Amino acid sequence: MSDVLPFASPHDPGFSPMSDVVFVLVTIAVFAVLALVVKGVEKL
Description:
By secondary structure, this protein is mainly α. The chain has one helix and no strands. It has a domain at 16-44.
């Protein structure tokens, strides 16, 4: 999974600010899903 996300270097040719925005949104979404999973587990 780490090779799919643009971790390497933001200054690569072909890297656009849009992919940076997408990366931030994906990161926030992952943390949101993790938080929901944790809350769901706590209810069990």
